[in-house]
């Protein structure tokens, strides 16, 4: 495979030699910082011919001549959406704004909600927002206000179950929402619900973890493939069926995505995004599937077999976001320093991606932290951090984004943590990098 390095500084674009314009590309945008919000901060979009990448610090716009501008995005970018001739931007601190292409600033001119917006979706020519605000799901009225759908969706903060809606999609005429929530009014919906235009309805017992103290799982994303609804996230069961991480609804019953032995059917599968394009279901995340002795961060399912698309480096890198660019092309964003061109010997399909164009939003802190290592991994007791620079602060987060521990020492006792996946956020001089580790018993 052809490997294209992404320079770990500022915003660098590298065009494959056989490409003539930005329209013939797969655009990959690196640099992810979890920010402790539990929602993705790295988002990508294609708007009016330009490519946009939203990170924890800023929104970057790259023009067709490969020049760029950067705009501050307080708290980080959670979602980007092209709607009604405008680029809508959801930021942690600005709530909802639009991007002014004339002066490259974010303008708060589209109303506001009383909490963080995690996702934006256009359904039947209407713009919807999902997130951590009252009601969880709201529709933009086109002028000044957002209208919550019916009784809305609710968490149970007193039990530590804060509301979050992570994605919205249309399926069979209904709006489907997933995230972490328990109720709509008095109806229990357990993190997966559908809006029929009048009220919210559950999908049976919804998403579960098999834990009576934390009964509802967390849905991370939704897609529709071959007229079936697909949900992925952090869950062990769907409607009390033992189906971990990703599940398929055919309108009658739930099943796993595939019985293909290539598929890693386990509870720790980290899929961060999935979309459908030209008859294929694309999944992206950590290196999650092995095909022909290669492990991929993006793979495509055609309904019968898997196709490896893209691998990214370094170790513990991941792809956070995939967005269609139009004309059979994708933009990807995540935490990586280089990407591998897809291998035409492994993926020869009509309308498939044929070229690679990379756009890095990797900032200066990535360059400074390139040689930071954490070890051992997996770990049982003491997490060690190897670095040539001074570490100011270290934070450990759960897979759900909850802050577990803070430290400044480069040796941290994690023996009291439960087994599972965690993220360690390492900061120095206002710059931050996040790495993953696995805690063993």
What can be said about this structure in brief?
This protein is mainly beta and 441 residues long. Helices cover 1% and strands 49% of the residues. The protein has two domains: 3-368, YVTN repeat-like/Quinoprotein amine dehydrogenase (Methylamine Dehydrogenase, Chain H, 7 Propeller); 373-439, Sandwich (Immunoglobulin-like).
Description of the structure:
- With 441 residues, this protein is an all-beta fold.
- The protein folds into two domains: 3-368, 7 Propeller (Methylamine Dehydrogenase, Chain H); 373-439, Immunoglobulin-like (Sandwich).
- The protein is 1% helix and 49% strand.
- The strands form 13 sheets. Strands 4-5-6-7 form a four-stranded antiparallel β-sheet, with no helix packed on it. The protein has a four-stranded antiparallel β-sheet with strand order 8-9-10-11, with no helix packed on it.
- Strand 20 and strand 21 (200-202) form a beta hairpin.
- The longest helix has 5 residues, at 364-368.
- It starts with a strand and ends with a strand.
- The relative contact order is 0.14.
- The model is unreliable at 1-41 and 341-370 (pLDDT under 50).
């Amino acid at each position: 495979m052809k490997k294209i390095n992404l320079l770990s500084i500022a915003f660098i674009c590298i065009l494959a030699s056989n490409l003539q314009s930005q329209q013939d590309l797969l655009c990959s945008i690196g640099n992810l910082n979890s920010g402790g919000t539990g929602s993705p901060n790295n988002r990508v979009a294609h708007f009016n011919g330009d490519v946009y990448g939203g990170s924890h610090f800023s929104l970057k716009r790259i023009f067709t001549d490969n020049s760029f501008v950067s705009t501050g995005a307080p708290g980080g970018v959670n979602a980007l959406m092209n709607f009604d001739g405008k680029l809508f931007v959801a930021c942690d601190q600005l709530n909802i704004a639009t991007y002014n292409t004339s002066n490259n600033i974010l303008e708060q001119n589209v109303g506001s909600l009383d909490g963080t917006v995690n996702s934006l979706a256009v359904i039947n020519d209407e713009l919807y927002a999902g997130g951590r605000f009252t009601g969880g799901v709201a529709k933009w009225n086109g002028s000044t206000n957002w209208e919550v759908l019916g009784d809305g969706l609710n968490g149970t903060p007193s039990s530590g179950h804060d509301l979050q809606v992570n994605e919205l999609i249309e399926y069979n005429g209904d709006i489907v929402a997933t995230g972490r929530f328990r109720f709509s009014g008095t109806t229990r919906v357990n993190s997966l619900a559908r809006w029929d235009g009048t009220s919210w309805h559950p999908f049976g017992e919804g998403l579960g973890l098999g834990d009576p103290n934390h009964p509802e799982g967390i849905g991370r994303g939704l897609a529709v493939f071959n007229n079936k609804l697909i949900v992925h996230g952090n869950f062990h069961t769907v409607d009390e069926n033992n189906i971990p991480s990703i599940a398929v609804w055919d309108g009658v019953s739930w099943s796993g995505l595939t019985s293909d032995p290539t598929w890693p059917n386990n509870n720790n599968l980290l899929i961060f995004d999935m979309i459908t394009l030209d008859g294929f279901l694309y999944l992206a995340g950590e290196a999650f599937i092995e095909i022909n002795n290669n492990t991929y961060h993006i793979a495509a399912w055609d309904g019968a077999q898997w196709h490896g698309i893209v691998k990214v480096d370094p170790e513990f890198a991941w792809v956070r976001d995939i967005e269609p660019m139009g004309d059979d092309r994708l933009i990807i964003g995540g935490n990586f320093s280089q990407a591998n061109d897809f291998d035409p010997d492994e993926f020869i399909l009509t309308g498939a991606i044929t070229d690679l164009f990379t756009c890095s939003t990797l900032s200066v802190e990535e360059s400074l932290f390139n040689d930071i290592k954490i070890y051992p991994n997996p770990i049982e007791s003491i997490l060690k951090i190897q670095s040539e620079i001074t570490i100011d602060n270290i934070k450990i987060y759960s897979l759900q984004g909850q802050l577990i521990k803070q430290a400044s020492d480069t040796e941290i006792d994690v023996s009291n943590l439960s087994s599972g996946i965690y993220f360690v956020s390492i900061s120095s001089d206002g710059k931050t990098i996040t790495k993953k580790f696995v805690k063993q018993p």
